Structure formats: structure tokens, C-alpha cells
Amino acid sequence: MAPDRSAAPPPPSAPRGDADPKLVVVGIPGNRRVSLFQDAVRAAGLPPAREVSWRDVLGDRAEFAAGETVRLDSPGEDPEVDRLLRDMDDPTRVEGTGRWYERFTAAAAGLGRAASAAGAELLDDPGELAVLFDKRLCHGVLDAAGVRVPVSPTSGAGRPAVSGWDDVRALMDGAGLRRAFVKIAHGSSASGVLAVERAGPGRVRALTSVERDDAGRLFNSLRVRDYTSERDVAAIIDTLAPDGLHIEQWVPKGVMDGRSADLRVVVVAGRATHVVVRTSRSPMTNLHLGGKRGDLDAARAVIEASGGSFFTALTLSEWAADCFPGTHCVGVDLLPAPSWRRYAIAEVNAFGDLLPGLTGLPGRGAEGLDTYEAQLAALPRRATRRTTEEPVCRHLT
Question: Contact, 44 vs 377, CB < 8 A?
Fold first, then answer.
């Protein structure tokens, strides 16, 4: 039996007085993520967080001090940081994520060593970030813990190499997959994702936001395109393959009002605190690709009417997050089956908390708080996160 978490304690207050943390946020100064976090710091009555730029981290200029609590935020939305990480002058380009991953994880590891040597506490474990930013490794960790994930021939540390479309086709055949998502291993925000469907020799269809120019370069766009030529699909996948590819089953999802739906569940210090429903007419529910926020009360009603359990959905998300106990906050992408009674975890996102205006679920320790306020309120709970040798999530799927 899973532990009963339905009766959560009242929302904890942020530390006050002598217990006030000396907060540091590593991010892009002036970026909306850092600004929203600073707003939460002010709302908690705490001194402003000291800001450290990713440019300084990448230039080996970042310093930390004893007693500081260091929060890492996304290095995205800064063209100069993007250039430093993947040598691309155009941030809309898709390629270069393999290089981005190597440099980002090396920088995070160096930052972690510097913070530890100075006596600072890091809220995001660099080793876990290296797993979270590799979809193959992340799926392997979840699967080993008994968390239901889509079938994948590329999950885990012993994954086969994928050098291009021929390998993708062979791996799909070997796994019995007629439909699959092909993703760049280190991508985010649906960058480089293709929803591929094969109907026989030479009959291929792929839906993706990737746009290919006459020179063969790949760009992210805000429109989902429909490619029906195997030659075009192969050209895109062959270009993406050097950065690393992950293949996973294209799982049918639950439907609300004629639109496919999934859930982004934010888990803070081991507790699911915020949920947003994402719906779309395409396989990608990302809001920047035309997805829309659905009504959570309506989704809960659908779940309960189908004989499912919203509590089960939250608990499964918490078990997925528990695979990464050194990371204070993650965003879990939860896929409801068409029946709405079973779920699978698509991804666990290290920086999945950018949900402006969304407040916490009642009774989960963050009611009335946004995702950043919830993270501050949960700092006293961080040291007491539950650990277990035997995950029970396999009984909830």
C-alpha cells in the first residue's frame, strides 16, 4: 500500500529571523524566472537573493560563501549563454544540444564543487541534473525504480547508439513500435521532437515543430509541421542524431473536449503541490506550440468518473520525483491513459516550475502560493524528505 499523503500539514512559513537563509539564485539576471523568484523572496519577507549569472559560472568567476543556500535556474533565454554552451549564434537553431549538455553539466559540477568547498548548500544536485537532462538516462532511472514510462529501446546507461534514421527504423521495429516519439536526448520545450508514425515500407509521417531550410539547417518554429516524405523525415533525424536521440512509445493520451491532455505536476521537496492541465490537437501539448491550459476541476471530474484517482496521479508524480532526492523542485509530465485510470511518466524536468499565476493545490502545503513561493516555504522540509529502499510506485500504475 502507498503511504496516505492526503492529509498534508498546513503550509510552512519561510524561515525567519536568525534562521533566514542567505539565498543565492544562479540564473539569467533580469530574466522572468529570476524576477519571479525574487518576487517570491520579497513576499516571504526575506532579504533579496544574491544573483549569480550563468555567464560568470561559465567563465569560472562565480563565488559562494558559507551558509548560503544556492538555487540553480535555467540557463535559457540568453543568447550569449546559449552561444557559450553550444557555439550557436541563432538561438532558434536546434543542433548543438550534445555540446550544450557536456558544457552545462561540467559547469554545474564545477559550481557544485565550489559551493561545497565554501560551505554553501546547493538545492539542485549536479549529478541528478546530468540524469534529468539526458532523457535516456532519466527513463532508465525511472524504469529501474518501478515507475511506469513509455516503452523505449534507448533507455538506460547501456542504450544502443542511434546514428540516424536507419537505426531509428530498426529500433522501432525491434520494439514493436509503429508510432514513436523521437527526441533529442538533451532537448527541452519540445525542441527537436518528432512524432513518427510508420504504416509500411516507405510510408512515414512525422509531426514536429522542426523546420529545415534549403541548406539542411534545423530551426525551432512555433508551428507544428506535417512531414509525409520518408526522405524529409530521414534528413531531419540524420541531422539530429549526432547530438544523441531517444526513442519512446507514442502513448495514446486521455481526451478532454476533443483535445489530447496531459498533466504537468510540480513536486517540491517530495510533495506534489501544483498541477496544470495541458491540452492540444497535436501530439505536443506544449503551450508555446498551441497547447492550452485545461480546467483542472474538469480533469479531476473526468478522472473520478472513469474510476481513476487524482490522488494516485499525484502520488505517482511524487515517486518519480523521489528518484531525484537532491533536487528541491521538479516538474513531472504525467500521461493519462485514454481510460484516465492509468498513468505513465513522460519526463521529469529540472526547471519545470515556470507556471506564472498558478497557485498550489488545497491541502498540499502550498495553497495560495505560486511555484516559487512554495519552494521557499518548503525549505524547512527539505532535510526530512522521505527515502525508501522499495518504491511502491509500481503498485500505482
Answer: yes
Q: Residues 150, 248: contact at Cβ < 8 Å?
A: yes
Share of the chain above pLDDT 90, in %: 81
Q: Has residue 21 got a pLDDT over 90?
A: no
- How many angstroms separate the CA atoms of 52 and 363, rounded? 34
What's the pLDDT at 29? Answer: 97
Q: Determine the pLDDT at residue 16.
A: 46
CB 239 within 8 A of CB 288: no
Cβ 29 vs Cβ 51: under 8 Å = yes
Quick check: 239 and 216 in contact, CB under 8 A? yes
Helices 310-321, 296-305: axis angle to 10 degrees equals 110
Cβ pair 314, 362 in contact under 8 A:
no
Q: Which pLDDT score, from 0 to 100, does residue 321 have? A: 98
Q: Which residue has the cell 523525415?
A: 233
Which amino acid, residue 349? N
pLDDT for 199-212, tens place per residue?
877 799 999 999 99
> Average pLDDT over the chain, rounded to whole?
90
Structure confidence by residue, pLDDT tens digits, 336-387:
999 999 999 999 999 999 999 999 999 999 999 999 999 999 999 876 654 4
**Whole-number Å distance between alpha carbons of 26 and 49:** 10
Largest CA distance in the chain: 69
pLDDT in tens, 174-202: 999 999 999 999 998 888 899 999 987 77
* Residue 368: all three cell numbers together: 495560495
